[in-house]
Write a structure and sequence with these properties.
It contains 10 helices and 12 strands. It has 295 residues and is α/β, with parallel strands linked by helices. The chain folds into 2 domains: 13-57; 120-293, Vaccinia Virus protein VP39 (Rossmann fold). The radius of gyration is 21 Å and the shape is globular.
Length: 295
C-alpha cells in the first residue's frame, strides 16, 4: 500500500474498524505460523491455538475469560469524596473521578480476569504469596487492586504511580491504612530528577523491603537498571515483574535475576500483547516472572 493510499485508507476507514481488521490479520498470521512449524505445537500452546481457531484475538487467549460479565459488577457512589468505587474482598477500590460507571465496570472486569487463577498475568500463587509483615513496593500501582489485596497483611506499603488522575483515587482507597501506606507520584526508572527516581536512590542503604511488584508498561528494563543495588543486596526478597510488554523481556530479566541470586519461575500460559506494534513470531509471551532470593 502506497503512502497516499494508506493516508486515504486511514481517512475513510474508522479507527475501530481498522483495529478489527488488524486484529483479524494478526490472528490469521499466528495460526499460520504455528501450523507451518515442522513439529507439533508444545502441549502448553494447545489451549491457545484452540481458542484462536474459534475466537477473536485476545490478550488472554483462554476460555476462562468468558465467565466474566462486566454488566454484573456493582459500582457505588461516594458522595462525600465525589468518587465511585467497587468492592474488592470487602474493601473499597476507588476509580478516577471522570470515569463513568460503564468504564469502571469494564476496567474492574479486566482486572479480575487478569488475576484469575488461570491467568498468565496472575501475580500470586499458593506458594508465591504475601506473608504477614511483608514490606511491599508496588511500582505501577494504577487502580491499586494488587496492593489493596495485600494491605491487611503487609506491615508497610510503598506505592508508585505516575498518572496524576490515579493519586486522588489511591488516597481514597488506602485512607483506612494511611499510617502504613506511602503513595509516590513519580516514575521509577534509571534516573533521578523532579519526576523520576531510581529505586536505589529512593531506598536508603540498609532499608529493607521484602516484596517488589513491577508493571510499568514496557519500562521495566530501565527500572531494573536503576535498582542494581537493591537486586544485589536485598534478601530475602520476592519479586514479580511483567514480561509481556516486549519480545525479549522474559529472557533478559530471567538472566539478570539469576545473576543476582534469585530463583525464577514464570506464570502459567501465554499472553498475546497485540498492542505492541513490533510483535513478531512466535507472538506468544509469558505474562510475568516470579523470583525469590532467600536470606
Amino acid at each position: 500500500m502506497s503512502t497516499f493510499t494508506s493516508q486515504i485508507y486511514r481517512i475513510i476507514v474508522p479507527k475501530f474498524i481498522r483495529k478489527k481488521i488488524l486484529a483479524k490479520e494478526l490472528r490469521s498470521s499466528i495460526l499460520t505460523y504455528y501450523a507451518s512449524l515442522p513439529e507439533p505445537a508444545d502441549e502448553e500452546l494447545t489451549p491457545v491455538l484452540d481458542y484462536l481457531h474459534t475466537n477473536p484475538i485476545a490478550v488472554f487467549p483462554y476460555h476462562f475469560q468468558n465467565q466474566y460479565d462486566a454488566d454484573a459488577i456493582e459500582v457505588f457512589d461516594d458522595a462525600e469524596k465525589g468518587l465511585r468505587y467497587v468492592m474488592l474482598d470487602g474493601k473499597k477500590l476507588y476509580f478516577k473521578k471522570r470515569w463513568s460507571k460503564k468504564r469502571i465496570r469494564h476496567s474492574f472486569n479486566e482486572l479480575t480476569k487478569e488475576q484469575d487463577p488461570q491467568s498468565p498475568h496472575r501475580y500470586l500463587t499458593d506458594q508465591f504469596k504475601i506473608e504477614d509483615g511483608e514490606i511491599l513496593v508496588d511500582i505501577g500501582v494504577a487502580e491499586g487492586n494488587f496492593a489493596l489485596g495485600a494491605v491487611e497483611k503487609a506491615s508497610r506499603l510503598i506505592l508508585f504511580e505516575t498518572d496524576n488522575e490515579w493519586i486522588e483515587a489511591l488516597n481514597a482507597t488506602f485512607e483506612p491504612w494511611k499510617e502504613k501506606v506511602l503513595i509516590i507520584n513519580k516514575f521509577v526508572s534509571d534516573i533521578t530528577n523532579a519526576t523520576n527516581t531510581t529505586l536505589d536512590d529512593f531506598l536508603a542503604p540498609g532499608e529493607q523491603i521484602t516484596f517488589l511488584k513491577i508493571d510499568v508498561d514496557g519500562a521495566e528494563s530501565r527500572l531494573l537498571n536503576g535498582c542494581k543495588r537493591i537486586l544485589k543486596e536485598q534478601k530475602p526478597l520476592k519479586l514479580a515483574i511483567c514480561t509481556y510488554h516486549k519480545q525479549d523481556d522474559e529472557k533478559d530479566f530471567k538472566a539478570l535475576l539469576s545473576q543476582n541470586g534469585f530463583e525464577t519461575s514464570h506464570s502459567n500460559g501465554f499472553m498475546l500483547f497485540y498492542y505492541d506494534k513490533k510483535m513478531k513470531a512466535p507472538y506468544l509471551r509469558r505474562g510475568l516472572i516470579r523470583a525469590v532470593k532467600q536470606e
